[in-house]
Amino acid sequence: MKISQIRRHKRKQALKSNTARLTLTSLIDIFTLLVCFLLVGFQGEAQIPSIKGLALPISSSYAPPESSLTLVVTPTEIRVNEKVIQRLDVPAAEGATMDFTPLITTLAQQALRFKPSQVVNGTPERTVIILADQNIPYATLHQIMMVCSQQHFGRIAFAVNKEAKKNA
């Protein structure tokens, strides 16, 4: 073989070996970031926290909750967005009122974070979802609802468990 043929053969071999190789590591990183971005950016139904020992009432409501302030009322405490705000001591005397000062200050702070969902009589009203144990006395819940309403959280929704479908 002549030297020119050898050089031509080497050039062809060099061109064949210089093909781009696809590295899967970079693609896996890109797809992982894309999946994480989509999961974080997806705004589905509002997630209601699950509290151990909290028995929600059962209802046949089908409306999904919207994203808003979450107020959890257990037999022993009141939580706002999963943070314990105050201990709940049900008054012994019927008709007696409790001191909800910690709840009032927390709702006033949270009102700055949540935009009003509607305006009623010129007053901005925000939405609050109350998760109350089914054994909480109505008088206590009524007082909590009044505090929420006074702090401009007038759109009050209650979280319930869906009623089981009957197979009959």
Share in β-strands = 15-25%
Q: How much is the radius of gyration in Å?
A: 30 Å
- Main sheet overview: 5 strands, mixed
The global form is rod-shaped
Q: Encode the helix/strand succession as letters.
A: HHEEEEHEEEHEE
Going by helix content, strand content and strand pairing, the class is alpha/beta
Number of helices: 4
Residue windows where pLDDT falls under 50 for at least 5 positions: none
DSSP strand tally? 9
N- to C-terminal distance: 90 Å
State the share of residues found in helices, binned by percent: 25-40%
How do the strands of the widest beta sheet line up side by side?
4-3-2-7-8
Characterise the protein shown here.
- By secondary structure, the protein is of the alpha/beta class.
- 34% of the residues lie in helices and 20% in strands.
- It contains four helices and nine strands.
- It has helices spanning 3-17, 24-41, 101-111, 138-150; strands at 58-59, 69-73, 77-80, 83-87, 118-120, 123-125, 127-132, 155-158, 161-162.
- It has a five-stranded mixed β-sheet, with helices on one face.
- The longest helix is centred in the first third of the chain and has 18 residues, at 24-41.
- It is rod-shaped.
- The chain starts with a helix and ends in a 6-residue tail after the last strand.
